[in-house]
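Protocol check, entry for the methods section draft. Step 1: assemble the input record (protein sequence plus ligand SMILES). Step 2: submit for complex structure prediction. Step 3: store the structure tokens unaltered in the notebook. Ligand used here: pyridoxal-5'-phosphate. Step 1 record:
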Amino acid sequence: MNQVRRDPPLPEADPELWRLIEGEDARQRESLRLIASENYVSRAVLQACSASLTNKYAEGYPNRRYYEGMDFIDPIETLAIDRAKALFSAEHANVQPYSGSPANLAVLLALCSPGDTTMGLALPAGGHLTHGWKVSATGIYYKSVQYGVRRDDHRIDMDEVRALARTHRPKLIWCGHSAYPRELDFAAFASIAAEVEAHLVADIAHVAGLVAGGAHASPIPHCAAVTTTTHKTLRGPRGGLILSRAEHAAAIDKAVFPGLQGGPHNHTTAAKAVAFAEAARPQFRTYARAIVDNARALAEALSARGYVLVSGGTDNHLLLVDLTNRGISGRQTSGVLNRCGIELNANSIPFDQRKPFDPSGIRIGTAALTSRGLDTAQMSEVAALLDDAIGHAAATAGAGDGGFCQAMRARVREFLQPYPAPGL
Ligand SMILES: *Cc1c(COP(=O)(O)O)cnc(C)c1O
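Step 3, stored output:
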């Protein structure tokens, strides 16, 4: 009992775990983080994540709860909802989804019946599992038709989307992606959806920050609903968000709770509210623009070094590099680079000849580096670091010499030293 009363801080209470957290902090500080779905949140967002709100149950919605004691939880969730609506100019917001995948499931539950047909961008073409890929619940409980990208320019073929929609008459069409470097034509998707009377749903998990910051067009005017994660370019806590037209508000709220989830994670809701306020500031517009400028500068620098980019470049925060002409696989490359302090992921490229677990490409994103304050002037050095490490990976056939990797880690640390990691 005394032990509980004493309530020591984490480093003392659980030194074994604390050391691991400190290790992760240092790793995030010292490595070149290029995973396109990751970022650094602010100290303010981190603080909200660890608030006492985690102790509270709050099933239901503000002013319609199944528990007492909502004096502060209700205003917090209302603040998050109002900020989300204002940030994205949306009629309705549900801030409770635990993450992006549950947000997508909730939209399906709200707008479709099991067995209905949906359409989405295929995973190998840059889509997400939850847009109907066969191993996902979204591809098991719903009939899924998948569209792809063109072989020649790796862009979504809107003629194919229209033809498939006319043939299969889907109830819902997803547009959105996890590994597609180009901006989507939401108006074109909307006209196809209208023609076949389908709900159009945009999943902007990757580009939500670019939309919030005005660097990309908003899908809101074109869609029945828009889903997103809050932790990628948006720079919020790990979580999900659903925006929708007022007409779907009741169905979406009912699908999230009680349809899919129990009590909302109030500490995460609070951190989302903090992040939405941060994203509404003028500096965030500069940030969103800088992410895109950095991606373009990095694309140009890598192209100049002979790297082949899927679709030839990028409009957003990410690039996909086809390593076929380098004689090394994506997985071998990402493994060696990780030992060099450069963090990115192996990724399938369109029409990949290799298996998904060891594909031909790597995916590179600029959101996290931009959060550290790097700008286009630094992208040529990022390209040089990548080129040296990839060259070494190829020369050692993915083995990666320990001395080389250690030297690279030091070079990366030194390069990043003037750009402190936010929140850490
Ligand atoms: C990341 C992502 C998700 C899923 O997010 P989780 O929070 O990992 O569940 C959904 N859709 C798209 C397009 C994504 O990129």
